[in-house]
Each structure stands twice: as structure tokens, then as C-alpha cells.
Amino acid sequence: METKQSMSSVNIPPPECMLRPLEVPYRYLFGPGPSNVPPRILAAGARPIIGHLHTEMYEIMNDIKRGIQYAFQTNNHMTLAMSGSGHTAMECAVFNTVEPGESVLVSINGVWGERVAEIAERMGAKVHTMVKSPGGYFTTEEIEKALAKHKPVLFFLTHGESSAGLAHPVDNVGDLCLRHNCLFLVDSVASLGASPLLMDQQKIDILYTGSQKALNAPPGTAPISFNERACHKMFNRKIKPVSYLLDMTHLSNYWVRMHVLYHHTGPVSGFFALRESLAILAEKGLENSWRQHREVAEYLWKGIEDLGLKLFIKDKDLRLPSVTTIAIPDGYDWKELLAYMMKHHQVEMTGGLGPSIGMVIRVGLMGYNCSKFNADKALTALADALKHCPKRRG
Ligand code: PMP
Known about the structure:
Elements: E1 28-29, H1 39-45, H2 55-72, E2 78-83, H3 86-97, E3 103-108, H4 111-122, E4 126-131, H5 140-150, E5 154-158, E6 160-161, E7 166-167, H6 173-179, E8 183-187, E9 206-208, E10 221-226, H7 228-234, H8 248-255, H9 268-284, H10 286-306, E11 323-327, H11 334-345, E12 347-348, E13 350-351, E14 360-364, H12 372-388
Parallel strand pairs: 1-12, 3-4, 3-5, 5-8, 8-9
Antiparallel strand pairs: 2-10, 6-7, 9-10, 11-14, 13-14
């Protein structure tokens, strides 16, 4: 007689690892994101699921919209949260406002411009770039010259260049874009809530951010907003955007017209958490949040210099308060420093990204993590790593 097991149609046994409980260590997330999530936001994400098209969900989505309008300082109706990380918002902005063959101008002074240039290239845009090494920034004269030369339909700028630790000036760029009949797209994934940004006043046509930085929600949702000019361009296209999922015609039905029509299943728990993170920012007040990030960053910068280290961005006014970049100290292997801090202090800091790899160590103190107490913790870990890691030359 055949045994029960030999009659089974399942050839592949349950994996050993899946029979063990989930283990997640506690880490001090002092890199460029994600940052630690406060208990209130974690609890919001752990609420029971409801349907993504239930009335109560639409009320929560409305709260999120209002919360984003406050955080972005905009009255735009076309304000929503993407189901996906910051890259989703990046792709959504480009896919919807640009048609194949149209000219796009991308400023590159770190990894994020590189990404946007690639995204635009992949969807068939004619991509022009302005390039500076990490830490560099673009003057309004340089931007105006490039706008006049390339006549783009879209100009991209990263407000908080997290790979270099630079907060790019935004004033006057919106006016230039308006004059050159070009949409102004700004990435604020690493800067929102940490460094002043005023979407309507600064004439930003499209602005997006991520959930996992100063907002302190888990990764996976991304606020985005389009003004009237951007809506006019994206809703008067000749051909449909390349992505069905990110097509703003559908997303605006879901989020803005709130038609109870199925497009995709939104990340319900992620939206609960995002709602709560925006509520915390609203309770604290944007200006208080900007002030707190600046004060703690200045405290951290001084502590770093007191350790004999050099800050990568020399001009204080250009430093991103949420992500500080330290020039790699002479003689040290940056990977060893990071590994030491992780092993002995459970502190995460990271190296550079894209063109800044090998140039910097990045320390992020964002939102919930943004305190002098945590700055001291980061400095203690750094000092200990400098003391114990081998110094090879210099
Ligand atoms: N832009 C900036 C400035 C970022 O810092 C990041 C994330 N590090 C992104 C875009 C991409 O966001 P995500 O990883 O959520 O896709």
C-alpha cells in the first residue's frame, strides 16, 4: 500500500527557513533612509485591513491628500499617494508629462538626476543633461541657458540630493521654467519635512517625496502633486503613457475623482501608516520640523568636526539637514568603518551612492530619529569606529 507521503503531488518540501519564526533585529537607522518608524505609525499600519474601495478608505485617502497638501504647501487638487516607493513617483511624473520624442532637461549632481535621465530615455524622450560632480549645484544662469538651448517640456531638479548631502536652491527656478514654457519637476524624497520647500510659492509644477525619510512611515508609498499646468500637459497627450499602472488618467479617477472603480489594489496598511505620519507632521508644524532638523544637523556637524572629520559640503547653507555627508577620512576603509558601527553599535550609516561612492559616509537623522540624543549616539559610534578600525596610510 502506498504511504500518504508518496501519494502527495507536492515534490518540493516546505523550506526550513519558513518553519522558523520571523526575526528582525532593532537597528538605529542613521543612514539616508529608511529611518526608524515611531510606535504610533507602526500601530497605524497594524490596524485591521479594510477594502481599498470602502467609504472609510476614501475618507482616509482624503486625509492623506490634505496632509500632503500641507506638507507640500500646495492647493493642488491633483495630489495623491503612489502605491510604490519614491521611484514610482519619479516614473509617474516623467511617464505622464512627457511624450516620446519630446525634450527633457535633467540636472545631475548625484545619483537621482542620473535615474531620472535613464527613466526619460527609456520612455523615448530626447534627454539633455547638465552635469556637476556630487556636491555641485546649478546657478539660475546655467539653468536658464540650458532651458533656452534645449527647449525642454520638463526640467528636473533634486531638492535634497541625498547621495551628496546637498540642499539645492529652488528659488527663481520655477519662474524660469514658466517663462520657457517648461514644467518644473522637483524630487523632495530626502528633504520633505526637513528642509524648507513651498510648492505653490516656488512655482513647482510637479513635486514628489517618499514615505520613509523625514515622514517616518514604512517604505512603499510616495506622495506626489501636479499643478494645473502639469495637469493640462498630461491630460492633453497624443498617446497614452507607457505604463498602465502609473497612468494618471486612472490614478486621478482613483484618488481625485474618487470613482469607486477598480484600477489597482492600493497598499491599505501603507496608507494607514502614511496618514499617521502626515498627521504627526501636521501636529508638529512644518516650520518646527524644519527648525528641529536644522538645529540637530548643526549639532551633528559640530560634533563631526570636533572628531577631526571634514564635512563634504563646505557651504553650510547648501547642506541638507536630513542627510549629512562626511568626507571619507584619510587612511580609512569606509566599508570597515560602517561594518564596525553596525556590529558594535547597531548603528546604520551608509557610504555614497552612484557618483558619490568612495567619496562620503552618509548620516541621516530624520523625523523621529532627529534628536541631539541620536546625534550623540551617531558620534559615539563614529568615534569608536575611528579608534578601532585600522588606519592604513596618510
Ligand atoms: N530621490 C531621493 C533624493 C532619494 O533619497 C531616494 C531614496 N534614497 C529616492 C529618490 C528613491 O526613493 P525610493 O528608494 O523610495 O524609491
